[in-house]
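debug: dumping io for the single-chain case to check the tokenizer round-trip. Nothing else runs in this session.
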Amino acid sequence: MKAYLTRRYWFSASHRLHSDEMSAEENQAVYGKCNNPHGHGHNYALEITVAGQVDPKTGMVCNLVDLDAFVNENILERFDRQNLNTLPPFQGVVPTTENLCVEVYGILQKDFHHAEVEKIRVEETMLNSFEYAGGREVRY
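debug: decoded output
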């Protein structure tokens, strides 16, 4: 029996949406106010969904202590209160929230071995949220 666990975390970060592949005019047309040279910040809500068999001994898909420790050490400490543009994963990559989802998914996929990473969802504002499931179709 496959079951799912979704855990929610919060962090704050800033970014400037700007592509070196485009002119200043193109960047302004594509990103609008998000192309502000001084950047802007968000209070992100991060949802991580993992899946797996329910352990008959514990009754859990994954121990929350393990997930929380991993996320705190490998994701929140890395991104919280940071300018995403200055971080290595975003050198040469526009730090959109779509790309942030892909990066967080990759970190979990590579090093979190307590459950299968199903999907990542990042809420950027009350109106915008983004999901990534490693190229798999997200089913609702």
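debug: round-trip ok. The two ends are 18 Å apart (CA to CA).
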